Amino acid sequence: MSVSRLFIEADLAAGVEVALDEAQAHYLRHVMRREEGASLLLFNGRDGEWKAVLSLRGRKAAVAVVEGRTRIQAEEPDVWLCFAPVKRARIDFIVEKATELGVSLLQPVLTQHTAVERVNVDRLRANAIEAAEQTERLSVPEVRRPVELGRLIDQWPAGRRLLMCDETGGGPPIAGALAALDSAARTAPWAIVIGPEGGFAQAELAALRRMTDVTPVGLGPRILRADTAALAALACWQAVLGDWREPTPRLSGDYRTARSAR
Amino acid sequence: MSVSRLFIEADLAAGVEVALDEAQAHYLRHVMRREEGASLLLFNGRDGEWKAVLSLRGRKAAVAVVEGRTRIQAEEPDVWLCFAPVKRARIDFIVEKATELGVSLLQPVLTQHTAVERVNVDRLRANAIEAAEQTERLSVPEVRRPVELGRLIDQWPAGRRLLMCDETGGGPPIAGALAALDSAARTAPWAIVIGPEGGFAQAELAALRRMTDVTPVGLGPRILRADTAALAALACWQAVLGDWREPTPRLSGDYRTARSAR
Questions:
Q1: Which residue has the higher pLDDT, B256 or A209?
Q2: What is this model's ipTM?
Q3: Distance (Å, rounded) from C-alpha B106 to C-alpha B83?
Q4: B257 part of contact set with chain A, CB < 8 Å
Q5: How far is B97 from chain A (nearest CA, A)?
Q6: Chain A contacts of B255, Cβ < 8 Å?
Q7: Nearest CA to CA, how far is A154 from chain B (Å)?
Q8: Phi then psi for B249, rounded to 5 degrees?
Q9: B128 touches chain A (CB under 8 A)
């Protein structure tokens, strides 16, 4: 049986007893049918990953009793994804995939051609937590409330570089543009900025291009949906500048089936 | 109003009248509510893209009268995606995204740890056509019937290189591995091979590694779902070896909203 893996807010250390929230307790007791003493893995984005055992309390509640650390918290790339909200299935998909691909922060951005303006931030946060839990990530990306593009530009943090992907923008090829960056740029914090389905308006494109430290790129001759462009750009960024540059550890053949439920 | 874009099997040339199939006629007449003389764009994967006008026949049927060519058929990268079938929403997603990312052929592969064995090939073909229609692609990838991994290996076409992505395999970083290839490898036909959710079995990994022209790669320290790994690998392949190496054309700001319905 696979081991359930949970994101929690509390500090983690050997011997600590962590209260599980109502949804987590319900999931473990009634969906996964876990019993007293079942093994768990916990992470909080700060203290690494810890083995714990389930302890039932009353008819509905549960706590996790923390035992030993299984993984050390590693430093992760600082790369934001700024994207225009799209309809429900596709925005859920962006959050899930970007979390797996190691994004550090998700920023919905409202533009002139943004078709969808209402964003359920709580649902997106729940999706990000679930994706982190299921794919062995040790942190959960921050999900911010939607912001107008103009305001995002005005408040842009100094030193954070932009990788600007716009289907209408005629940018240079992404692999070459990333490979040509100097070492200061390669080690800076980054943000990937993706236009809405209708593309950025001309004034928006101009405002983005006026920013310092912006790298416009193209993603080939086919028109990509906004969600596809976001993930493709993030994968290329990780491969060329991010933590995909390190060799991955060799895992035992049944590592994934044994550890995580899918 | 946006212009409907349709994939058809027939040859395309100026003045030709193309019969639309029942589903296409229904979609245009009753879903999109197109009327006599409405503009269409047609492509067949061979003759480029053509402007046409709709002509209604009787109460249900319709034909397209072809006018002039709007785009020349361009050569596309020859890159297959060999992937283990996953459950419905995720396999539909793989087909849609891989089509946008320019895959030439989709090959479902049955492995020891493949959880899903039934694949609705007709539905996958319909998804590939829809993705090509909506994202300006001039061709539709071939979708093959599922095949056992052993048989796929036995019948592997000479000279087609493999990019092997396996979460448990400890491969070298993808960007470096692709950049280090010699020019013969860079211009060869390729296939991206993705393991199932449970990973390849040890014997399968060994059989894949014994093939000539195999390049094992890793996709970073986080465990990716099989669908995420497929798209990330394809994006990196296009960026480093495929047609994303060419600058993209600059399009007018309202190009996408004017041309395609989403």
A1: A209
A2: 0.91
A3: 8
A4: yes
A5: 6
A6: 168, 199
A7: 23
A8: -70, 150
A9: no
Task: Report whether pLDDT(B253) > 50.
Answer: no
Task: Using an 8 Å CB-CB cutoff, list chain B residues near A172.
Answer: 247
Kindly report the pTM of this predicted structure.
0.91
**In the block, residue with structure tokens 């934001």:** A80
Q: C-alpha angle A188/A217/A221, rounded to 5°?
A: 155
C-alpha distances in Å from residue B211, one per residue of B143, B190, B207: 24, 13, 7
What percentage of chain A exceeds 70 in pLDDT?
93
Distance between B186 CA and the closest CA of chain A, angstroms: 15
Tell me whether strands B17-19 and B61-71 are parallel, antiparallel or unpaired. antiparallel
Angstrom distance (rounded) from CA B249 to CA A171: 8
Express each pLDDT in B194-227 by its tens digit.
988 878 898 999 999 899 899 999 999 888 999 9
B222 CB contacts (<8 Å, ≥6 apart)? A100, A101, A102, A135, A136, A137
Dihedral sign for Cα atoms in the order A231, A235, A238, A243: positive
**Tokens found for residue A34:** 């876990």
Amino acid at B87: K
Give the model confidence (pLDDT) of A70-120 as tens digits.
999 988 999 999 999 888 888 999 999 999 999 999 999 999 988 777 899
Beta bridge partners of B69: B50
Residue A132 main-chain phi, psi, to 5 deg: -65, -45
- Dihedral of CA atoms B262, A230, A89, A3 in degrees, nearest 10, equals 160
Contacts of A200 (CB under 8 A, 6+ apart): A111, A112, A113, A166, A168, A169, A208, B253
Contact state of A228 with B100 under an 8 Å Cβ cutoff: yes
What is the C-alpha to C-alpha distance for residues B87 and A218, in angstroms, rounded to an integer?
A: 32
Q: What is the distance between the alpha carbons of residues A62 and A24, in angstroms, rounded to a whole number?
A: 8
Distances from the Cα of A47 to the Cαs of A5, A44, A50, A74, A129, in angstroms? 15, 6, 8, 9, 16
User: CB of B75 within 8 Å of any CB in chain A?
Assistant: no
Length of chain B: 262
A145 is written with which tokens?
């409330």
Strand order, beta sheet including B49-57: B4-7, B39-43, B49-57, B61-71, B17-19
d(CA B208, CA B192): 12
Query: pLDDT by residue (tens digit) across B132-184?
Result: 999 889 999 999 999 999 999 999 999 999 999 976 657 899 999 999 999 99
Interchain proximity A235–B240, CB inside 8 Å? no
Beta bridge pairs of residue A142: A105
A219 Cβ neighbours under 8 A, 6+ residues apart: A165, A167, A174, A229, A232, A233, B235, B239, B244, B248
